[in-house]
Amino acid sequence: MRKHLLTSTYELLERRPAVRPSTTALAEHAHVSIGTVYRYFPDMDTIIDELRMTAVHNITTALSTAIARAMDQAPIDSMVTVVEGLTAAFEKHAAILRVSYTSDETEFGLAWAEIEGPLRPLARILPTRLRPDLDDDALDDLIFIVMGATASLCSRVALLRPARADREKLIAMAAHMLLAAVEGA
């Protein structure tokens, strides 16, 4: 039942992006009583938070996988792989990302910190390979900026892309921008 309620909430979020459903709307959509909803969750914030934490975990896993795939690729190909992987992960979880973070960009920054933290050691690999001339402090600064830029670019492509925009071209452009940042630092 818990999984059914979470899935039903996500379905409601997909139908009406950036609109937080009520527990009553959830009960109706899930075809359960309001008491059933409250038996499993004290409020909608708890449901949204659980969905957000699942999204953060899945995005972290997807980004980690993309970074691992990028290890032996040419520099531009590795950037495309990382940008594609993160963009796809943001797209997969768009409904929860929109409702969780559209009201406050600071919250997206906090969620990104949850994703970024465990990935910092992996994130060092590509810039270290491309910029062996940098000392540890300069490398840390570069990684800090590039990870933030990557999150911003990928979230824009995934969540804010105009209908007429070509997704693949945007991903390639973002990858080129990131590679230029790493190589030019």
UniProtKB/TrEMBL annotation:
One of its GO terms (molecular function) is DNA binding. PROSITE patterns: HTH_TETR_2. It comes from the Bacteria. It holds the Pfam family TetR_N. Residues 22-41 bind DNA. The keyword Glycosyltransferase does not apply. Residues 1-59 form the HTH tetR-type domain. The keyword DNA-binding applies. Keywords: DNA-binding. This is Bacterial regulatory proteins, tetR family. The lineage of its organism: Bacteria, Bacillati, Actinomycetota, Actinomycetes, Mycobacteriales.
